Amino acid sequence: MHYVTFISYICHFATLFCVSAQFRSSNDNNIIHLLPAYAIASRASLLDSATCATELRAFLDAVDQRILWGLKTLDSSGELIPGFLYGNNFWLGSRSQCLDIMNKAPLELAKQYILNNTRYRDPQDEFPPFQLNYFVAYIRHNSTFQYHINTVIEDLITLGLCLPASCSTNNISFILEGIFRDRILLINDLYFVDFNLIQIKNLKDNHQWLLNGAIPFICVGLVLTFALMISGTIYDIFIYQTYLKATNKTVSKYISCLVWSWYLSSDMQFFIIGLALLILSTVYFYVAVVILCTILIASIILSGYISYIYEYVPTLDEQYRLLDVLYFPPWIRIGPYIIGMITGYIIRRFNKKIILKKVKYTIFIFT
């Protein structure tokens, strides 16, 4: 009797083992049919590249053993998503997630949350033992079930794949062409569709795009533009410095063929200062206001001090005599520029709703 019971137990466990193995095999086959990235990894033996084939098999084993980095890699790849019949051909996955899998300094969490996470998984299983890369496959399909509106790319599927970085585009193309030829994906039979691989793109940013297309010409144009701006500014500053260093205060201003060009250097300096303060005001408004007011008050005080030490009297001959001291310098003339900036800000702040009454005054100034 005991022997019969023992044999029945053995038969029972053998049956459970066979069912479990069959269920697991069925699950693995389902993954192959549903997920393109897993299907690619399952055919790693077709490759001659030892490194790519080895890492694809490691990825496959990690998924089968439910190791976290393998699941995250699989989760980053694209797959058939809802909306295919209505034209959704973008099976992109997530490039940012694919690249972040290798990030060993992730977003910091509170200690209690980290402990709660590590309770259910081993942190060492979160990072792959090799580098990953994100690829994009462009695939043509011929499904007549999908609605078409006669656009150029309506039959073009964009498939994102997170795979080992050691794999080349040729490796992935070779495997995908075999998968499409053998029609092993579920969508082949579900929608009576065939696939034709057009191209595999490696989206690793090696900055080669800087040398393609119109980018070099745009860069050359920008360099030339900045060179002209810098040259013009240096020329303006040179004119200004020439005025300051001129020994003959009366002749140097009037023999110039461009007598008004003295203002160009000042205007350029005012523009740079104003632009810097405007940018600063978007982040630290009150700091910009304090700096602006300080410059304005300093300009007023400096103008008064210079007038005092030169004993300036507001007459026409004195104005010509002190042009280089009280008329041309930017630290003297920046005051009206700042007043203009403040006025512009007030008008813009009140959305042009300030009512300015026109009042005419006749002012007689006797000197």
Automatic annotation (TrEMBL):
The chain crosses the membrane at residues 209-240, 260-280, 287-310, 330-347. Keywords: Membrane, Signal, Transmembrane, Transmembrane helix. Residues 1-21 form the signal peptide. Residues 49-194 form the Nose resistant-to-fluoxetine protein N-terminal domain. This is Nose resistant to fluoxetine protein 6.
